[in-house]
Amino acid sequence: YKRITTKSLIEMKANGEKISMLTAYDYTMAKIVDTAGVDVILVGDSASNVMAGHETTLPITLDQMIYHASSVVRAIQRSLVVVDLPFGSYQSDSKEALRSAIRIMKESGAHAVKLEGGREIKDSIKKILHAGIPVMGHLGLTPQSIYKFGTYTVRAKEEEEAEKLIDDAKLLERIGCFAVVLEKIPAALAKRVAESISIPVIGIGAGGGVDGQVLVVHDMLGMTHEFSPRFLRRYMNLFEDMNIAISQYVSDVKSTDFPNEQEQY
Ligand code: KIV
Ligand code: NA
Fold it and tell me: Which of 164, 170, 210 lies closest to 187 in space, CA to CA?
């Protein structure tokens, strides 16, 4: 294997090879995801929902993100590890943003950070990039702004928001981001963005006209089961399968079937 770098991703786009990306928040899952050949592992702030059970991504802290990221980094051999800067760790000013990004890089050993937003956080992104830290952008449905949007429905359906999104994507490319995530926007718009910039566009609910795809690993494995947006393809039904296995364990303990003669000393 050869380690994936931000450069390899840009080359993959140039060569027309699609990029695969999944989330991971812990060592064991990251080991599986890395071994399976996923190009990019995102330590997403979706850990706030998936790991901690919060309703939104807002409560997760920088310290908690660093804990998740360092666990993931210890598992990987090939994948590029990108870590979300959590809500409240970069919005005040660009110095705070840089300090947060530096903490993630130093304390977790990750390879890059991701920030939600375009022109509003341009100075912060530039400052992080100037420190030599690769930045992935994130536009469209940006969950840290859920209380501004008021709903998790598709973004940029109207011309004005679509034009702003295209301009923001171009801005992110111009200032030096190595890739950008587009979340839950019309497929035609996402394709247009992918065709108008040379850095990779990774979509989630953004159709097939982009340069790569990302999903939350617990969603695609069916470990979560109350979340079923149209864009989610479930490759397993682990919630059900794990439930069956664990119920079987409970009944084996109750019936004294477990442990048997071979399962003891
Ligand atoms: O936190 C996350 O999982 C994400 C992806 C859905 C892009 O930001
Ligand atoms: Na995120």
Answer: 210
Neighbours of ion ligand 2 (CB under 5 A): 44-45, 84
Q: Is the ipTM of this complex over 0.95?
A: yes
**For a pocket test of ligand 1, which of 25, 41, 216, 217 has the largest count of ligand atoms closer than 8 A to its C-beta?**
216
* Domain 6-234 CATH (choose: 3.30.450.20, 3.30.70.2740, 3.40.50.300, 3.20.20.60): 3.20.20.60
Residue with CA closest to ligand 1 atom 2: 44
Residue 217 CA to its chain's centroid (Å)? 9
* Distances in whole angstroms, Cα of residue 242 to Cα of each of 155, 180, 235, 245, 259: 35, 34, 14, 5, 20
For residue 43, give the ligand nearest its CA.
1
Is 183 among the residues known to form the active site? Answer: yes
Instruction: Give residue limits of the domains in the chain.
Output: 6-234, 238-265
The model's pTM? 0.98
pLDDT tens for 203-230 read: 999 999 999 999 999 999 999 998 899 9
State pLDDT tens for residues 137-183.
999 999 999 999 999 999 999 999 999 999 999 999 999 999 999 99
Q: Measured between alpha carbons, how far is 216 from 206 in angstroms, rounded to an integer?
A: 14
CA–CA separation, 180 and 182 (whole Å): 6
Peptide bond into 186 cis (omega under 30): no
Q: Residues with Cβ < 8 Å from 237, sequence gap 6 or more?
A: 222, 225
